[in-house]
């Protein structure tokens, strides 16, 4: 178990060793976002700008326009909410090489409550032209995502969580920007892309990101035990979306269930629907937060209270199949 | 006669010769500004004309270290036009400096033009930052100044702000950071024309005293007449390239400077002169001998 934010801190230190050009910024949350690990290792390349998120993004843009690879971190609510215009204008419009890596996204922030639980950040970032949006599900995928973001020249948003999460992806799985990952044993991406069949191969396909990937796997196993044919896939790359894989999944499935720790408006579920509806229309159920703000509570309680458990995914799948 | 005063005299002659050239260029730039905005049918003449002398001194007075043939030269000085709506003045200066062909100036604000309504550093050679959403440029300049220091370059970063723009909180976040990081390679110039869109800055929401604010934020502050070319030249060339503190120059200016009916007139902030107005403005700015 490791929180994705901890994996981020470790990945930054590795990056800092390899690449002198990496600069990291934070806004008085370095102990929480884990950029403090980089700060300790490379104090000269770390800047704490204080509680000034707009300035954080502007300084990040200026450093990037001068050739630096910049990681700018704070909580997801403050990064994408307080500094939306700075991300839009100073970073994205300029195509600046800035990676906005935001921790404490979603309900699993827990007791801090609704004011601190970003549930619309994916929607905001996804709507910005040219922005890459990544939501890794575990520590290993986070490290891959950070590395991939650093190797890519342009703005990237990476969404991380507060709570420790188990390693979900099979060993040896490599994340790539723009690629989904098929998680069901015995099924590969290549199989899905090449297979031609008249009958759907799957009753239901779960497409998830972040903490919901594990729930998707559990739901898929539960339904398989009931005799349904299921597929689970991790779509950490929300933008660019792996439309090739998505359409193959849609072609081979009776229904799709999406799962995310985000508002059902504007996140992964929306991205999937927008893409699927035009090429391979298939019933889609979006599991997410139903257009409300969060509240205080412990992370697992909140996931239950807002309908984000494996059980909720199973119910959604059954409903989808009835559609 | 002692050598020093001889040197001083030579320097004075040099300065007045340079000032003369800058004034000629400023006149050319003002004409371009009016022609471009007239042709576009929209744009911001007031703030473009108030900042024209400042930009002309920077680019034609030998203050900025730039190479028009190599716009992305790493050793160059950077200029962030934070008050991005004054883009026409910057474009005219850059074209006259040789960053791109003057022939494209009339394409300002037209579909497909590299000359966007507000500066776009991905489209226009010589533009160092994309601006237009007020309040962000000083932060970008702080980032550039930090990068300059990290890379051990001695280039300098200039940011040009509006006085109304100083109502944006982010300006002060950036000012705080500039002095916290002791960015002696950063100069913020405030185009202190006293007007914004809805009226006088003092009436809409006063950020005054601006110079005292920058001072209290840790800047070395200079107040100067923003249309006194000799004064600007003298000041800009005397500023330390890399001192202990960031520098702020509050340049007192007149919005619409150079076109009588636009001077000090709030209404000419963001309106294009048409027909008779265009003719009057250009007549007043006079013929320019293209060199
Ligand atoms: C964030 C933001 N809010 C509003 C505007 C619209 N706007 C454009 S210019 C301007 C007034 C600027 O006044 P000032 O900074 O004094 O500039 P100047 O007088 O030099 O033209 C405003 C409000 C903007 N461009 N950006
Ligand atoms: Mg003004």
The succession of helices and strands of chain A, N to C, reads EHEHHEHEHHEHEHEEEHEHEEHEHEHH
Give the largest chain-chain interface (CB within 8 Å).
A-B, 30 and 36 residues
CATH class category of the largest domain in chain A: Alpha Beta
Here the CATH topology of chain B equals: Rossmann fold
Shape type of chain B: globular
- Helix fraction of chain B, binned, reads 40-55%
* Uncertain spans of chain A: none
Structural class of chain B: alpha/beta
Most strands sheet of chain B: 5 strands, parallel
Could you tell me the strand content of chain B as a percent range? Answer: 5-15%
- Give the second-level CATH assignment, the architecture of the largest domain in chain A: 3-Layer(aba) Sandwich
CATH architecture of chain B: 3-Layer(aba) Sandwich
- Spell out the CATH superfamily of the largest domain in chain A: Thiamin diphosphate (ThDP)-binding fold, Pyr/PP domains
Structural class of chain A: alpha/beta
What attributes does this structure have?
heterodimer; A: 323 residues; alpha/beta; Rossmann fold; 2 domains; seven-stranded mixed sheet; five-stranded mixed sheet; 14 strands; 20% strand; globular; B: 291 residues; five-stranded parallel sheet; 9 helices; 10% strand; binds thiamine diphosphate; binds magnesium ion
Describe the fold and architecture.
The complex is a heterodimer of chains A (323) and B (291). By secondary structure, chain A is α/β, with parallel strands linked by helices. Chain A has two domains: 2-165, Thiamin diphosphate (ThDP)-binding fold, Pyr/PP domains (Rossmann fold); 181-320, Rossmann fold (3-Layer(aba) Sandwich), CATH 3.40.50.920. Chain A has 14 helices and 14 strands. A seven-stranded mixed beta sheet of chain A has the order 3-2-4-5-7-6-12, with helices on both faces. Chain A has a five-stranded mixed beta sheet with strand order 9-11-10-13-14, sandwiched between helices. In chain A, strands 1-8 form a two-stranded antiparallel sheet. In chain A, α10 (212-225) packs across α14 and α11 (243-252) packs across α12. Chain A is globular. In chain B, α1 runs antiparallel to α2 (45-60) and α2 packs parallel to α3. Chain B is α/β, with parallel strands linked by helices and 291 residues long. Chain B has helices spanning 3-40, 45-60, 87-97, 137-150, 169-180, 201-204, 210-216, 229-238, 275-285; strands at residues 78-81, 157-162, 186-192, 220-225, 247-252. A five-stranded parallel beta sheet of chain B has the order 1-2-3-5-4, sandwiched between helices. Chain B has a single domain (3-290), classed as Rossmann fold (3-Layer(aba) Sandwich), CATH 3.40.50. The A-B interface holds A 23, 44-45, 47, 49-50, 52, 54-55, 57-68, 70, 85-86, 88-90, 93-95 and B 74, 78, 80, 120-122, 128-133, 135-148, 150-151, 169-170, 173-174, 176-177, 180-181.
């Amino acid at each position: 178990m490791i929180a994705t934010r901890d994996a981020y801190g470790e990945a930054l230190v590795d990056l800092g060793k390899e690449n002198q050009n990496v600069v990291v910024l934070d806004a008085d949350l370095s102990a929480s976002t884990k950029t403090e690990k980089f700060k300790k290792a490379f104090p000269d390349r770390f800047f704490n700008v204080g509680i000034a998120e707009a300035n954080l993004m502007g300084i990040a843009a200026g450093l990037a326009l001068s050739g630096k690879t910049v990681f700018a971190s704070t909580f997801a609510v403050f990064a994408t909410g307080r500094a939306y215009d700075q991300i839009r204008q100073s970073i994205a419009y300029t195509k600046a090489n800035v990676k906005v890596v935001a921790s404490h996204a979603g309900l699993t922030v827990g007791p801090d409550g609704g004011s601190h639980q970003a549930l619309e950040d994916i929607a905001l970032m996804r709507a910005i032209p040219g922005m890459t949006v990544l939501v890794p599900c575990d520590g290993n995928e986070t490290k891959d995502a950070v590395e991939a973001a650093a190797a890519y020249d342009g703005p990237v948003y990476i969404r991380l969580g507060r709570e420790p999460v188990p390693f979900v992806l099979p060993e040896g799985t490599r994340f790539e920007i723009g690629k989904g990952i098929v998680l069901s044993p015995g099924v590969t991406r290549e199989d899905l892309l090449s297979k031609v069949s008249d009958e759907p191969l799957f009753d239901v396909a779960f497409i998830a990101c972040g903490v919901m990937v594990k729930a998707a796997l559990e739901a898929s196993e539960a339904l398989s035990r009931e005799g349904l044919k299921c597929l689970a896939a991790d779509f950490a790359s929300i933008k660019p979306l792996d439309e090739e894989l998505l359409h193959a999944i849609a072609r081979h499935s009776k229904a799709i269930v999406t799962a995310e720790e985000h508002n059902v408006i504007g996140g992964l579920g929306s991205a999937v629907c927008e893409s699927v509806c035009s090429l391979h229309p298939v019933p889609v159920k979006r599991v997410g937060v139903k257009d409300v703000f969060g509240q205080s509570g412990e992370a697992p309680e909140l996931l239950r209270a807002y309908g984000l458990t494996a059980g909720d995914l199973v119910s959604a799948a059954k409903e989808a199949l009835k559609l | 006669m002692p050598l020093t005063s001889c040197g001083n005299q030579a320097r004075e002659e040099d300065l007045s010769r340079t000032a003369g050239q800058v004034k000629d260029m400023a006149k050319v730039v003002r004409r371009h500004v009016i022609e471009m905005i007239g042709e576009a049918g929209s744009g911001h003449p007031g703030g473009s004309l108030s900042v024209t002398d400042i930009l002309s001194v920077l680019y034609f007075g030998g203050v900025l270290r730039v190479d028009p043939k190599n716009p992305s030269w790493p050793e160059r000085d950077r200029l962030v036009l934070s008050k991005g709506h004054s883009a026409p003045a910057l474009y005219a200066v850059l074209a006259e400096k040789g960053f791109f062909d003057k022939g494209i100036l009339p394409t300002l604000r037209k579909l497909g033009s590299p000359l966007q309504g507000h500066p776009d550093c991905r489209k226009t050679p010589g533009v160092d930052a994309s601006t237009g959403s007020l309040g962000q440029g000083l932060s970008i300049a702080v980032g550039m100044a930090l990068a300059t220091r990290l890379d051990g370059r001695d280039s300098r970063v200039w940011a040009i702000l509006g006085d109304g723009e100083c109502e944006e909180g982010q300006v002060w976040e950036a000012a705080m950071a500039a002095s916290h990081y002791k960015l002696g390679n950063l100069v913020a110039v405030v185009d202190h024309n006293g007007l914004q869109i809805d009226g006088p800055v003092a009436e809409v929401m006063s950020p005054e005293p601006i110079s005292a604010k920058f001072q209290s934020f840790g800047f070395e502050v200079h107040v100067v007449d923003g249309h006194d070319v000799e004064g600007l030249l003298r000041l800009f060339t005397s500023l330390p390239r890399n001192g202990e503190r960031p520098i702020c120059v509050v340049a007192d200016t007149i919005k619409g400077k150079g076109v009588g009916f636009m001077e000090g007139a709030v209404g000419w902030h963001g309106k294009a002169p048409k027909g008779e107005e265009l003719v009057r403005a250009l007549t007043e700015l006079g013929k320019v001998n293209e060199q």
